[in-house]
Design a protein that fits this description.
Layout: E1 2-9, E2 17-19, E3 25-29, H1 36-44, E4 68-76, E5 79-88, E6 91-96, E7 99-101, E8 113-116, H2 122-125, H3 128-142, H4 144-167, H5 177-213, E9 220-225, H6 236-257, E10 268-273, E11 276-277, H7 278-281, H8 284-306, E12 311-314, H9 323-331, E13 338-342, H10 345-348, E14 354-360, E15 363-364
Parallel strand pairs: 3-13, 3-14, 8-12, 12-13
Antiparallel strand pairs: 1-2, 1-4, 4-5, 5-6, 6-7, 9-10, 10-11, 14-15
Helix pairs in contact: 3-4, 3-5, 4-5, 5-6, 5-8
Amino acid sequence: MKVIALKFENYRNLNDDIITPHEGVNIIYGDNAQGKTNLLEALWLFCGGHSFRGSKDNELIKWDKNYARLEMRFYGQEREQKAKITFNGRQKKIEINGIEKKSTASMIEKYCAVVFSPEHLSLIKRGPSERRKFIDSAICREKLQNAVILSKYNRILSQRNSLLKDISKRPSLEETLSIWDEPLIKNGAMLIKKRIEYTEMLSAKASEYHTGISQGKEKLETKYISTTNALQNDTVEEIEKKLRKKFEENRAEDIKTGVTNAGPHRDDIEILINGKSTRQYASQGQQRSAVLSLKLAEAGVLRERMGEEPVILLDDVLSELDAGRQNYLINELKGCQVFITCCEQSNKELLKDGKVYYLDKGVIS
């Protein structure tokens, strides 16, 4: 997967322009608040039409304009392709190879990328929900069916929790719990199995990347922590049995608290460096390296599943990393197209082969 050209018009603070990036490493250099992250966001939007910063579509349009347009030529699926996104207020128009598409999801099948931004450090610094979100986002991008399973589970969980709250007022409703338990167990077991399989693949690849980034000084481990004691080699049927048993054991507590106290919505992913929790014991640089390794591993899993290297977008990735780790990211990620933003002039001078773009007040040179 390679971006051949990116054109932007009325997009955020960027001056209308077109860039033709290097097929290897591209460094986007400049002071803060000049538009570097905006450029990475434009590249990411072709993954599915949504900003990795959570921005609304109308926020992508330059303040004095009524529309914004992004166009990309890229090489993927063994041929050159074109994609276009037009934002017009709350309207969004998607075109792929000249054909208008009804949904932004259609772009996921054509173009793929992996992004790291400083916000992703929340994977380590915040609670389990951030880590579950990371895994769920990854498995949903792999297969649409996984997104369907996750959506069903969350919908049924919400309905079961509403019923649990009502039981405290009307105890006779307890006998209707089984109506929600079985579909929740079936979808929950499939979700847990998908997460465990993905975490296993992710852990192996993240460990390899972290060995390279840390120059062999650190060992990274990633483990799936199940509230229902689901194990790596369990079948979906075995996980169903464990979920069913846990629900039975927790029924009184669930009714008392008004929430479902066990299941994939309470699971976690443990991230360790040299056997110690990254959240409790890792330095800022180690935490950043660990998250980077996970994101690069995500790209590796995508490569295996899709048969192509995803584009890698690294936003403000080099700060708090020593020279050895910076050099690895700039010069040792072979075979894939990489875009890296940075502020320090010394960072761009590490680049051995590629392109450097300078961004100043939205103007790219």
